[in-house]
Amino acid sequence: MTATPAPTALDTEFAPLDIGPIQVWPPVVLAPMAGITNAPFRTLCREQSGGKGLYVSEMITTRALVERNAKTMQLIKFDPSEKPRSIQLYGVDPATVGKAARMISDEGLADHIDLNFGCPVPKVTRKGGGSALPYKRNLLREILREAVANAGDLPVTMKMRKGIDDDHLTYLDAGRIGAEEGVAAIALHGRTAAQHYGGTADWSAIARLREAVPAHVPVLGNGDIWSADDALRMMRETGCDGVVVGRGCLGRPWLFKDLVAIFEGDVDYARPDFGYVARAMVRHAQLLGEWIGDETRGVIDFRKHVAWYTKGFSVGSELRVKLANSSSLDELAETLAQVEQSQSWPVGADGPRGRTSGNGRVVLPEGWLDDPYDCARPGEDAESDTSGG
Q: Which residues form a coiled coil (predicted)?
């Protein structure tokens, strides 16, 4: 299955990303983000890229999927234009993960399964999930084995962090285990769980993982890709096979247009004026309303994106407040029309967005760090019966 056309330039330096039978060009993946990478946002990013790249759903809890939770079943609905369809699963119980993978395969719910071992939020790590789980090497192996064995012909990939903290790094062991268990690709966010989203991503860890994992298993880098130039620099510095873009595209869906351009030898990056940004904002809110089935709820859900879209532009505090409290498409569009539409792209607007702080401490189950090979099982309450943020 080919996700995107073959490269037309720079193909002597960079190759398409092969994830099982899926070929991705440019080698760019949208990172799963809870409450963000739903079908409307994926559609917006894909439109900007001309359909190139790979776009992953927000995190889906395996228990909720197996139990066919209504919210979860809504979250895994893909737009008919989405090919390939990519689902990220979060699970802590090997058997449940296996059931979820088999369900996706048997029912044709997606074309690719990604497994989340990188989430650093306390409500996940305190139960032994997300970025806490790879510390338990044998449990990680069992989960990967069940997922791969039950996914049929679907490729299974994994996304992780460096480890719990600098004293408990897990990424090299986890990468080797993933390769041994047959994952189709491994993505590494160059931060520990303790860093959360603070500090600077350690790209050298991505390079070390690339050296440690067999060459036939693609390694993807994640962390601090705020512009297309950052993506190119990461690949050149680390030797990774592709990049995963998360917070860098918040309020900047056209970053994927830039990524296509730079990998195909074009430096004509998107530097939209405010009028272009305003139209993208309205379209995003409209897509959310259509997806949810209620315009007001769609606009309300869109509110969290307002600050990201308008960062750097001269909007004014009063209009920002009105935008953040809009409850209809007309109200949103009318408020946006009051902002000077011809404003040029702000200098420095490509910097960090989203969460930027670290928590310095990871909440873990009692005794979690006592034995990295103890195949402890997180409790039944470690997985929510619903999905999303």
A: none
Residues contributing to the annotated binding site: 32-34, 88, 159, 189, 246-247
- Catalytic entry in 119, 240, 249, 375: 119
Give 190-200 pLDDT, tens digit per residue.
Answer: 999 999 999 99
Whether residue 326 contacts residue 334, with contact meaning beta carbons closer than 8 Å, is answered with: no
Average pLDDT (197-209) is 96
State the DSSP string of 357-382: ---S-----TTTTS-TT------GGG
How does DSSP assign 9-74, residue by residue? SSTTT---EEETTEEESSSEEEPP-TTTSSHHHHHHHHHHHTT-SEEEEEEEEHHHHHTT-HHHHH
- Secondary structure (DSSP) of 237-294: HH--SEEEE-GGGTT-TTHHHHHHHHHTT--------HHHHHHHHHHHHHHHHHHHT-
Reported as a single tens digit per residue, the pLDDT across 113-162 is 999 999 999 888 988 999 999 999 999 999 999 999 999 999 999 999 99
Could you list the residues known to form a binding site for FMN, using ranges.
32-34, 88, 159, 189, 246-247
H/E element holding 309?
Answer: helix 306-310
**Predicted local confidence at residue 251, as pLDDT:** 95
**Peptide bond preceding 21 in cis form (omega within 30 of 0):** no
Query: Residue range 351-360: average pLDDT?
Result: 62
Average pLDDT over residues 17-23: 97
Does 17-264 carry CATH code 3.20.20.70? yes
Active site residue 119: yes
Residue (of 232, 258, 225, 205) closest to 352 by Cα position: 225
Rounded to whole angstroms, how far apart are CA atoms 110 and 106? 10
Mean pLDDT of the chain: 91
